[in-house]
Amino acid sequence: MTWGVARLLPIALALIGCIGGLITAPRRADALSIELKGVAADRVERQRSWEQGAMPLPGTPNVAILDERLKQKGVSIRAPILIRIFKAESELEVWKEKQGQMVLFASYPICHWSGMLGPKLREGDKQAPEGFYTITKRQLYHAGRWPRSLLLNYPNIYDQAEARTGSDILIHGGCTSVGCFAMTNPVSDEIHRLTESAIDGGQQNVPIHVFPFRMTEENVKSHPSSAWSGFWANLKEGYDAFELTKRIPHVSVCSSRYTFSESSGSANTGPVEACQTTIATIKDQKDWLDGVTPASPVVQPVRTAAVDISPPMRLGAGAQTQTDAQTAPAGLTGAAAPAATAPDLSSTDPKSVVQPIAEKPPAQPAIKCRWALRICRKTATLKDIQAARKAARFALGLRLTIILPRLRTLAESNAQ
User: Fold this and answer.
1) Would 352 be classed as within a structural domain?
2) Could you report the per-residue pLDDT of 300-322, keeping only the tens digit for each?
3) Count of domains observed in the chain
4) Which of these, 363, 362, 371, lies nearest to 284 by C-alpha position?
5) Is residue 353 part of a domain?
6) Bridge partner residues of 85 (DSSP)
7) How far, in Å, CA of 162 to CA of 254, rounded?
8) What is the rounded distance in angstroms from the CA atom of residue 326 to the CA atom of residue 348?
9) Which of 15, 152, 185, 211 is close enough to 173 for a disulfide, judged by CB 3.0 to 4.6 Å?
């Protein structure tokens, strides 16, 4: 038996060492790793070219002669601007106004964008958004790694009505991105200069139209089974409105749809507006979220009162729900699971959840979730799942650091 253990221990040590290395090895910040599957190979090649210094990317205009290119096109740097992004083609277009219509000034290759075709749904999903956005002067500069970049107003009115979450979606430099559009530094500086000049020239809201691909009939028909075909058909209406007139359409939102109308001839079409129904939907969602009090740990006995946090909800087949207090993913235990301070709601009627209250609690109405609210049918728990997985990897790595020395000691003693 001792001889058999001595033969097997080196193999076990090798396997455990490999697993520990995979789990605990730090990733390079600029590693060519795209975490979502199905990413087009051209994006990987652009990142590789950027890391190797093979710049500029093919198809990039000569940013060193911007003034000369403006003169050749016959447009002013302070003229109104439109930015269009096509994810599948990895292209960003800049249009400038000339004699009452928009003309294509430049097309730039996008060095990298993350995610798949389809809109951004929630914070942390690593998706680049799709839709109609605007940029104002306040969105030209901000704190962070990219102080001179364009900050999209995501989530816009449409996204808010759909209960989509997220923040800090930028058009910036470099060639790495998690939900943004990375253009390389020289190209990003030129786009920023063109946008800032247009705003200084009087364009208060610069439109940013983000499409999954060029919305031609052929491209749309090539995605018949996509879950986003209806959403993309709505985006195509805005795409066609501009292609037909070469004027920036006025965009508004109502009943979970973008609507488009011809502008009065001015490129300053203003922000995306919403009808009263959409505004009421967003307000209902905000009121519901503001009324939900997260569970807090109970450190000593206190008087309690029942709070109605939500009624049962019916969802489609295969859908899953999760309450605010039940954030740990199934199957994670021990160090991988969050601290057990919140009540377990897995087998409890939500209406009977007990919450601590003060000696003289203020009067507050029961919180009721309406079935019509999308926020009641969607739970943004991706960050919680990621945190639990990170804790699981750390716990496993910690266990391996304890087990490996013991196994080595045992192997050495058996060998002797």
Assistant:
1) no
2) 554 544 444 444 444 444 444 44
3) 1
4) 371
5) no
6) 92, 210
7) 11
8) 11
9) 185
**In this structure, is residue 88 part of a structural domain?**
yes
Assess whether 172 carries a catalytic annotation: yes
Q: Which residues of 102-116 are buried (b: 16+ CB within 10 A; e: fewer)?
A: beebbbbbbbbbbbb
The answer to whether position 357 is within a domain reads: no
β-bridge partners, 186:
none
Residues 6+ apart with CB under 8 A from 136: 153, 199, 204, 205, 206
Choose, from 112, 172, 192, 250, the residue flagged as catalytic: 172
Backbone angles phi, psi at 89, to 5 degrees: -85, -10
Q: 166-207 pLDDT, tens per residue?
A: 999 999 999 998 899 999 999 999 999 999 999 999 999 999
Between CA 309 and CA 302 the distance in angstroms is 20
Q: What is the pTM of this model?
A: 0.63
Instruction: Write the pLDDT tens digit of every residue in 114-152.
Output: 999 999 999 999 999 999 999 999 999 877 788 889 999
**Is residue 57 within 8 Å of residue 43, measured between CB atoms?**
no
In the sheet with 112-113, reading across from the earlier edge strand, the strands are: 112-113, 181-182, 170-172, 150-151
Catalytic residue among 111, 175, 180, 376: 180
Residue 180: active-site member: yes
Determine the length of the chain.
Answer: 416
Q: Which domain holds residue 86?
A: 42-214
Q: Alpha-carbon torsion 197, 200, 203, 205, what sign?
A: positive
